[in-house]
Amino acid sequence: MARKPNKQKKNQSQNASPGADTTVETVGSQVEKGANAPLSKRTFSNRTLLILTILLIPLGYLSYRSVRLYNLRSMAFEASELRNSGKWRTLEPLAVKWGQADPSTAIPWLYAAECAEKLGSPDRMAQYLEKIPGDDPRAPDLLLELATIYFGPLNKPLQGVKAVERAIELAPEHREARRRLIFYYGITMQREKVIEAAREAIRVGADSQETYVYLIGANWLSFSNAYELNGKWLQSDSNDEVFGIAEALHWRGATKNDPSVAALPEADRERIRKAEQVEMLKKYLERFPKNSELLAFFLEESTVRGDIEEVEKLLEQVPASAANDNRFWHYKGWYHSNLSEWEEAEKCYRKALELHPYAWRSQFDLADVLRKSGQMDQVEKWTQLSLEGKDLQKTILQLPDVQSVPMEVFKRMQKYADESGDTPVAGRMLERIRQYGGGVNSGQ
């Protein structure tokens, strides 16, 4: 007898997990429908989204830019109103905010600096001037104003020098910036830098009559306020060697009327003050044994005394970095001359004049060496040059200041430069004479 099919199992099989079968069919149908969807519709949808995105990006940027410009103009208008009404305390934070929002312009930082000045805050004024964009045409002049603050109320001379140097970097032909840099080197007795800066100013056409005074008088020019300024800058604790030594070297001249010795005869006053200065400088020499200004001072003292051994000892201390300082070649010439080594002495004096043609003492001593070695044909030339250089020194030191050199004196300086063999400088001075309407030297 044939077995009947198990209907119960069949029914169970047919009815088992009906939901699963339905789900599979539903998902499958969706995938199939998606796969069989028209390609053009999907592509159109993606392209539309891409095009809309591309169009919205510039629109968004333009919208942002419009809002930004509106805000900047609003701040500029409000700042102008506050400035006109003198509301400095309100204006300052607004100007700072404006400057931070628009770093391309100097105006907000100028407003902020003006506020700081009106409110008596030179430190904040300096901070704002530091933020002036370098590409602003006013930047060089504003950097000099910044330097004035650093040299003056803030007493940060090294930062002042940096501000002047930045002004020169932005505008190499800036005459006032060059003048200030040369003055700083001169008053702090950084003699080699005076010569270098003066010649560079002449080379780029940023020279004035004052520039040539610094150049020709590099060995002997003095400043009435040097002691005071170096003493002030020394308190900044930024450079004891430069400011301390410069102050000490100017000490005797600046304190000659000290009440402690005022009642003594002039000769005694000078002797006492000189002895005090020497002791002061000896202490500095112990700290800075390679300092050029100290070595030059003590070499001069030793040559005046005729102390050959001390001169030899000091010359051995001169650092290699001072190889271009004409003074040490001069003292080396003195040393050889006092040993009757005429050939070596002549070489040293000529080297000194090659480095600095206006050293009239080297001119005089060279003439003496040539006379003693029998070279009489050049003796008169160097003797006359030395006498003219000495007389120019006297004349210039009697001027009220180096900024007001009479044309007659300037012409003498030009002739002296020409006869001393400094042709580039003499030529430039001649151009200046013509420019100033002073005519041409009678010797030209």
Short summary of the structure?
The protein is mostly helical. Helices cover 73% and strands 0% of the residues.
Key features?
single chain, mainly alpha, Serine Threonine Protein Phosphatase 5, Tetratricopeptide repeat, 22 helices
Mean pLDDT: 86
Total of helices: 22
Q: Estimate percent helicity.
A: over 70%
Roughly what fraction of the amino acids lie in strands?
Answer: under 5%
Report the CATH C-level class of the domain at 68-213. Answer: Mainly Alpha
| Category from helices, strands and their pairing | mainly alpha
Q: Architecture of the domain at 68-213, CATH level 2?
A: Alpha Horseshoe
- How would you sum up the major sheet? none
The low-confidence runs, each spanning 5 or more residues with pLDDT under 50, are 1-37, 440-444
Structural description of this entry:
It contains 22 helices and no strands. With 444 residues, the protein is mainly α. The protein has a domain at 68-213: Serine Threonine Protein Phosphatase 5, Tetratricopeptide repeat (Alpha Horseshoe). Helix 5 packs antiparallel against helix 6.
Helix-strand blueprint:
Layout: H1 7-15, H2 18-35, H3 39-84, H4 88-101, H5 107-118, H6 122-129, H7 139-151, H8 157-170, H9 175-187, H10 191-203, H11 209-216, H12 226-234, H13 240-254, H14 266-287, H15 292-305, H16 308-317, H17 326-338, H18 342-355, H19 360-372, H20 379-397, H21 407-419, H22 423-435
Helix pairs in contact: 3-4, 4-5, 5-6, 6-7, 7-8, 8-9, 9-10, 10-11, 12-13, 13-14, 15-16, 15-17, 16-17, 17-18, 17-19, 18-19, 19-20, 20-21, 21-22
